[in-house]
Amino acid sequence: MRKKILIADDEPDIIELLRIFLESEQFELIEAHDGQAAWELIERHQVDLAVIDIMMPRMDGFQLIQQIRKACKMPIIILSARNEDVDKIKGLGIGADDYMTKPFNPLECVARIKAQLRRYYEFNDSGAGDADAVTSIGGLTLDHRACLLYKRGQPVALSATEYKLLKMFTDEPGRIFTKKQIFERVWGDTYIADDNTIMVQISRLRDKIEDNPRSPVYLKNIRGLGYRFAKREELDEQTK
User: Fold this and answer.
1) List-wise, which residues carry 4-aspartylphosphate (predicted)?
2) Cα four-point dihedral sign 73, 57, 108, 86
3) Which domains, from first to last, does the chain contain?
4) Residue 174 near residue 230 (C-beta atoms within 8 A)
5) What is the pTM of this model?
C-alpha cells in the first residue's frame, strides 16, 4: 500500500514541485491550501505523514499541528519561510518531528520524508511498549501508533475522528457513553445537542467495523441513553 502524504501550503508552486518528486517515488499525495482544509482531509483520510507550512489562512500551521496531535501520532514536517530559531523551537515543541526552511531542495525534502516514515513505521515495530501500542477485541485490532484498524488481519483506514471514537469505545468496552460524553471527549468541545454530527460519524465507523452495519454487533445504540461497545466476552460468545 502506497504511503499517503499530505502537503498543506498556500503556495501552489510548492505543492506542484513536491508532487513531481513524491509521485516519482510512488507516494500518494493529497493537498490543502489552508489549515482548515488540511484538517478536514486528515479527518477523512488515513494520512501517513504531513508536510505543513506555518503561514496559512483560516488555520495556521501551529494550530493545525496542535489539532493533529490531539488525534494522531503521525510524523509531521514543517516546511516554512520562517527561519527564526523561535519558530523552529515552537514548531518542534508542539509536536513537529522535523523543520525545513524555504527555499529548499526537494530531493532533501523527500529524503527527510522517507527518514521520518522509516523511523515511525519500521523502527517502531519492535521494542518496549508494544503491549500498549495496540488494542485487540473481537477480531478488531487498533494500532495506536499508526491510527490504523485491522479487521481480521486486513487493514482498514480510519479518519482521525473515527480513530478517536473507536479508541474511546474500546478502552472501556461495555460502558454506555452518552452523546454529551462522546462529543466532549472526541471533539473536545461543549456539547450543543448536535445529534447529527455524532450519528454521521457513528454510521461511518460502523460501515468499517461491522459485517452488517444495519445489525451491529460491536457498536450498539442504547435507546434513550447513548452508545455502547460490546464486551470481549460477549463478542467471544457470538463467535463460538
Assistant:
1) 53
2) negative
3) 4-125 (3.40.50.2300), 133-238 (1.10.10.10)
4) yes
5) 0.60
